Every structure is written in C-alpha cells, then in structure tokens.
C-alpha cells in the first residue's frame, strides 16, 4: 500500500511539474540539482565539465522516463527546487504589485506563514502564484532558474558558457528575456536590502495616502527611495560599505534561504545577522566581485529590438516609456516586474490621487523636484537627507506627539550636522592657503632681484612658491568626495580614498619643504641632496595626481550617467578637472627644473616659471574664487525654477563604485 501511495504521489508530482517546465527549463533544473559539490577536491574541473554538458543540452528528461527509483529521486529534487523558487517568485510579485513597493521591499517572506514581515510585524499577505497564467508562471520560473544556475557558475565558467547563457531551448534570447534576468538580479539584491533595513534602525513607511506622499504624516521617504529601494543605501545605514548586496547576490538563493532563518529568530537573530554582515564587509572590503557580463546589457533596456513586438503584454506597453540607462527609472521598472505579466490586472488601479506605478521620465523628474522643495538639506547633502528620512529614530523625533526638541547632546543627527558645518569651514580655509603662499613667494622673488646675495629672499620665494600648490591639492582631494556626495548622493566612508590622497599630499609637502630648506645651505653636496629630495616629492605628486585624475574622470562620467545633470552643477566639475591638469603640468615643469639642475633650460629662462607656475596657479585660484564648491553648500537648495529638460543620451546606467 505504501509503495502504491508513493508511486501515485510521484506520478502526480511529475504531471504537475511537467506543466511548468519546457525543455530548456528542464535542462536548467537538471544542471542545478546535479551541480557538483564545492567540497569535491576537483570541483573546478567537475563544474567546468558539468556546465559544458549543460551548454550542449545533453541532460536526460526525467519527465519522459519511467518512475524508477533514480528517476523518482530526480523528480523529487526538481520539485524541491520548484517550491523554493516559487516561494521567492510569490515574494517578488507581492512587492512588485504593491501599492507602494518601497514599503513592501523592506519586508521579508516567511516559510512558516503566508505573510511578509518587518521586524516580526506582519505587513501583508504573500502573492498567490496560482493566479498566474501558465505562460506567466513559465516566464518567471524560467528567469529564476537561469539566474540560479548563473549564480552557481564561477566567472570563468560563465565566460566559457556565455553563448549558452544567452539561449533558451536552442533559441537566442529576445530582448525581454534579458530584461527578465535583470529583474531577478535586482530582486535578489533587494532581499539583502530588506535584511539590512531590519538589522538597523530603519523606518517602515505607511501606505501611500496620496500623490507624492508615502506617509500619513510628513515628512516621508525622499527621491529616489520613494520610487525604488537602493540596497547599498541600507547597507550604509547599517554600517557596511558599498557593493555588499551585489557581492552577496552571487551566492545564489540558497544563501538567502539560510539567512532568512536568522531574521525569523527575533531581535537576537537579527543582531547576529548584523554582526555577520559587518564581518563579511571587512572580508570583502579589499576585493570586489567582477560584474557579470549581463550587466552591460542594462544599456539596452527600452530599446526596440527584433522580436520585441512578440514579448509579454506589459513589456510591449512599457518598453516605449522607459528611458535607456536612466538608473532610477530602470531600477524602478525592474523592481516592479515589468516584463513578466500579460496585463496590468495585478497592479494598483490608476488614480488621480495616487502616484503612477510605472512613472514616466517627466514624472520621475517631478518626484525629484518635489523632494528638493520638501527637504532643504536634500539639495546640499542628498545622501544624508535620505538617510535621515529612512531612520526610525528621526521619524520618532519629528512625530507630532513629540512636544519639544531634544538638546544637541541628545541628538546624534544634530551633532552630525554641526560636525559637517565645521568641516566645511575647514575645507574652505584650506584652499585659502594657496593665495598668501604664492603671493608672498613672488614678493620674495622680487626682493631677491634687489638682493641677489641674501639667503632670506631666496629661501622665502623657493619655499612658498614650491609648496603652496600642495594646499590646493589637498583642497581638490577633499572636493571630489564632497561633490560626489552632492551630485551622486554617495555617503562618505570613514576610511576613503580621500584620506589616502591627503596622506600622500602630506608626504609631498614634507619632502618638498624639507628639500627646499637645505637649499639655502652653502654646501653644494647638501644642496644637491636637497634638490633630489624635492625632485622625489614632485615625481611622487605627479604619480598621485595621475591616479587622482583617473578617478576624477570616472566621477565626471558617473555624474553624467547617474544624475539629472543640470548645467548648474557642471561648472564645478570642470573646475576640478582643469585644476588637476594645471597642477600636474606645473609639477612636471618644476620636476624638470630640479632634474636639470641650476644650469638647466628651465632655470635659465625665467619666463618658464611665470608661465608654467605663476600663471597656472593664479588661474586655479581665480577659478576657485569664481566657482568654489562651497557655493553648493551655501546655495541652501536654490534650485532653478526652470529645470532643464534632460536628453536621454546624457543619462547613462551605473553602477559605479566609491571614488572618494
């Protein structure tokens, strides 16, 4: 009787699964359940052979064979895989079709019940996949299967099987197939965003009450948090660095399943998980997983391609709306499952008082503009303003029930704001160091003309003119980090490349000031040593400036790609670029001067000093006097009323790493 029952159960399972799998999906499922164990001694060779076997589509179909013991075990494992992926598919659709997706995306699914929870609080019921059509189920399951298999492959194997990863059942991917893969990639990252949020002091917004409002009491989430969830933002809120969600996304759905158990274990479980994330961040801090080749195809989102007219219903409706490579808009669409469904029956009904579920470019720009008007600090420090609005503590402080504001010593946010202001004043003063340095240096040079044998004017002009640009170098090193926060909304890190560049600037200052001091000693050998020390400092600074210039250009491209790039901002970015070039050219000429010695071409032609030192440095001073980045802070959010219309060619997809 038991054997007959097992046989019947296996037969029913086989028939049910067969309706959800086509030939290509069966090959993907077989490749997943038969994937070699990482504990095997020769795992790399076995995995390579296994993936090549999959690429040739040579796995046998267990649904076409008799229910023997081995075949029954395969079907059982496929059934487990199917259940696990359908669990995540239901969670994905719950969030994608919610009235306010950024709220649901902070919640996590539970295997113990049919609800999504936020820190133990039941928030909403999970979507029922039984309501999907057969084609919709297959689209979703196919994308989740392919992503699971992709995550299991190492990068070298992914490159080896690249052509096969772009095919299904022997047919080349259509455009919507690729977007489906990107949707699943984005969803997996948002699962970690929810974990970060629940392990920190994050605020769960209320249901949308009206257009532009995410809460029954103001203020609420700010752009772009009001449209989509940024996993890296919540990682920063928790105290971790960038790209941790992207790195973890390469660890398959199996790791997510394990970590979900910790989130269901109450606050102690979440505290342990938070500690694990922080330790993991320290391990990963020095190395970053290379981006998968599929990431480059973000650029094709929304573009018309062959076969696009045959895609799913929602894809055909929305593909003409989306702006290629506009990061906020594309991320919003990916998080709202824009390519899977036949129609809009699961999405919130359009309403005159509710924000559109799939915003257009103009609506996204308007959302950003309304955010700037809503929060004064957003214009100057968007990352910090957004972080405050995500904080439960800040919302508690601003709640209507609160009768008085706490003192500064009791408010960490006010302390941070005060610290920022102090840093800004120091930042402005550093740049002023160049003006008296060069000015008094040239006064010393004029003095030396009337007293050529006196060591004092010689020492004055040599030291001040030589080391004054070091101060402006320190300023531009700091400027990059501040501009990055203002334009890209990235948070500063405690140990950032900016700190390293400042350290190199201190080294350059010490070598140049030390070498120039011994130049006034009337000992040719010591003077020669001093000249070599100064030359070493200049060459070192030249190398550092080359590295820094590469980061500045990367930042400039990122600014064009990831921001609504208004003309109002561009001048400050180009001031930074031109300043770096001017200082580098100046240092190159001064290095040639010390390399040639006292009787070289540069020393024998005083015009070289005025053209390639004085003129360049005073030009930098003038540029910073007119376009000082401090004006971005002092502007106080004065956004032009007539916002520029952004050409879609200017908005290009990220993501980009930390620059400073």
Automatic annotation (TrEMBL):
Pfam families linked: RTA1
For this UniProt entry, what is the primary localization, expressed as one broad class?
membrane
**Its domain of life?**
Eukaryota
Q: How does it sit in the membrane?
A: Multi-pass membrane protein
Subcellular location(s) per record: Membrane
Q: Where is this region: Disordered?
A: 390-417
Cellular component (GO) terms are: membrane
Basic and acidic residues bias: where?
394-417
Q: Please state the span of the N-terminal signal peptide per the UniProt entry.
A: none
Q: Which residues form a coiled coil?
A: none
Q: Which residue windows are transmembrane per the record?
A: 458-480, 500-521, 533-551, 572-589, 609-627
Enumerate the UniProt keywords alphabetically: Membrane, Transmembrane, Transmembrane helix
List the protein's name.
Answer: Uncharacterized protein
């Amino acid at each position: 009787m038991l054997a007959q029952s097992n046989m019947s159960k296996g037969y029913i399972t086989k028939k049910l699964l067969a309706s959800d799998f086509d030939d290509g999906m069966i090959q993907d499922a077989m490749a997943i359940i038969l994937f070699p164990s990482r504990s095997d001694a020769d795992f790399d060779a076995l995995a390579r052979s296994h993936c090549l076997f999959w690429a040739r589509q040579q796995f046998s179909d267990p649904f076409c064979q008799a229910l023997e013991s081995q075949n029954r075990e395969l079907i059982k494992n496929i059934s487990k895989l199917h259940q696990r992926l359908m669990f995540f598919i239901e969670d994905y659709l719950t969030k994608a079709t919610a009235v306010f997706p950024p709220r649901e995306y902070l919640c996590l699914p539970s295997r113990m019940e049919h609800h999504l929870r936020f820190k133990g609080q039941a928030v909403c019921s999970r979507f029922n996949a039984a309501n999907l059509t057969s084609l919709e189920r297959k689209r979703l399951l196919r994308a989740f299967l392919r992503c699971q298999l992709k995550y299991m492959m190492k990068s070298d194997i992914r490159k080896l099987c690249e052509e096969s990863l772009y095919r299904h059942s022997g047919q080349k991917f259509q455009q919507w197939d690729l977007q489906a893969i990107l949707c699943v990639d984005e969803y997996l990252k948002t699962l970690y965003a929810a974990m970060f949020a629940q392990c920190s002091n994050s605020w769960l917004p209320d249901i949308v009450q009206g257009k532009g409002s995410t809460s029954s009491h103001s203020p609420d989430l700010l752009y772009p948090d009001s449209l989509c969830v940024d996993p890296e933002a919540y990682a920063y809120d928790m105290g971790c660095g960038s790209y941790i969600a992207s790195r973890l996304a390469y660890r398959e759905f199996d790791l997510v399943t394990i970590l979900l158990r910790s989130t269901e274990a109450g606050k102690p479980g979440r505290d342990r998980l938070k500690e694990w994330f922080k330790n993991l961040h320290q391990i990963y801090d020095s190395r970053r997983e290379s981006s998968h080749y599929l990431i480059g195809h973000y650029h094709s989102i929304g573009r018309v391609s062959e076969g696009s007219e045959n895609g799913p219903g929602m894809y055909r409706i929305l593909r003409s709306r989306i702006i290629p490579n506009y990061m906020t808009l594309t991320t919003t669409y990916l998080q709202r499952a824009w390519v899977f469904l036949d129609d809009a029956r699961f999405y919130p009904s359009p309403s005159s008082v509710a924000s559109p579920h799939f915003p257009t470019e103009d609506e996204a720009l308007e959302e950003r503009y309304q955010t700037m008007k809503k929060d004064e600090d957003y214009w100057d420090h968007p990352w910090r303003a957004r972080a405050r609005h995500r904080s439960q503590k800040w919302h508690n402080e601003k709640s209507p029930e609160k009768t008085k504001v706490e003192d500064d010593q009791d408010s960490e946010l006010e302390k941070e704001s005060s610290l920022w202001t102090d840093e800004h004043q120091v930042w402005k003063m550093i740049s002023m160091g160049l003006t008296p340095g060069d000015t008094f240096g040239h006064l010393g040079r004029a003095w030396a003309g009337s007293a050529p044998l006196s060591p004092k004017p010689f020492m004055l002009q040599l030291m001040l003119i030589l080391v004054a640009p070091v101060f402006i170098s320190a300023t531009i090193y700091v400027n990059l980090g501040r501009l990055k926060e203002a334009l890209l909304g990235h948070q500063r890190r405690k140990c950032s490349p900016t700190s390293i560049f400042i350290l190199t600037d201190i080294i350059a200052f010490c070598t140049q000031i030390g070498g120039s001091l011994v130049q006034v000693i009337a000992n040719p050998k010591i003077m020669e040593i001093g000249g070599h020390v100064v030359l070493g400092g200049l060459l070192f600074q030249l190398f550092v400036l080359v590295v820094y210039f590469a980061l500045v250009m990367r930042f400039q491209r990122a600014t064009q790609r990831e921001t609504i790039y208004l003309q109002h901002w561009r001048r400050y970015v180009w001031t930074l670029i031109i300043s770096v070039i001017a200082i580098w050219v100046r240092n190159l000429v001064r290095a040639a001067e010390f390399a040639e010695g006292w009787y070289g071409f540069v020393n024998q032609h005083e015009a070289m000093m005025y053209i390639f030192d004085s003129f360049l440095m005073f030009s930098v001073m003038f540029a910073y006097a007119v376009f000082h980045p401090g004006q971005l802070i002092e502007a106080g959010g004065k956004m032009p009323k007539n916002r520029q219309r952004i050409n879609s060619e200017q908005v290009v997809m990220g993501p980009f790493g930390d620059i400073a």
